[in-house]
Amino acid sequence: MAKVESFDLDHTRVRAPYVRIAGVKHTPKGDTITKYDLRLTQPNQEAIDSATLHTLEHLLAGYLRDHLENVLDVSPMGCRTGMYMAVIAEPAPDDVRAAFEKSLENVAQHGEKIPGVSELECGNYRDHDLQNARAVARKVLDQGLIVQETINIQR
Ligand SMILES: [Zn+2]
User: Which amino acids does the record list as binding Fe cation (predicted)?
Assistant: First the structure.
């Protein structure tokens, strides 16, 4: 089976919430694609319920693109502790941290309508929790985002 870089991260030696470079790829045509680990809660201590994470996905998909150029994708982690974000080029971790912080502020202050929530636009449109999404964003901001270095598991 192919090796997956996120399985090498020592999840016991990170301090969430944080922003971390999870991987950098160079395409055959010379472009760079960077994958970021945008961690919202401490791994193995606290997970976000799926309705809340789903709403965070819908909101961050728009807000991160407002604050950062060339965002390819923002997707929730299966462990429900954060998001992965793929970006063209290699923005500095501190710029990504600032963009994520602004986006979470936008989420915390978001109004009543979640974008893309209808049977036409979403695959599980009933499964959302805006109130808790706002609360999670506020909590993350209160805790303070850091730039986390990657510490690999010693095997
Ligand atoms: Zn959806």
Answer: 54, 58, 122
Span 65-106, pLDDT tens digits = 999 999 999 999 999 999 999 999 999 999 999 999 999 999
Parse the chain into domains and list their residue ranges: 5-147
Short-list 59, 57, 67, 135, CA closest to 101: 67
Judge if pTM exceeds 0.90: yes
CATH superfamily, region 5-147: S-ribosylhomocysteinase (LuxS) (3.30.1360.80)
DSSP codes, 119-155: TTT-SSTT---HHHHHHHHHHHHHH--EEPPP-B---
**CA 155 / ligand 1 centre spacing (Å):** 38
Q: Is 54 annotated as a binding residue?
A: yes
pLDDT tens digits for range 17-53:
999 999 999 999 999 999 999 999 999 999 999 999 9
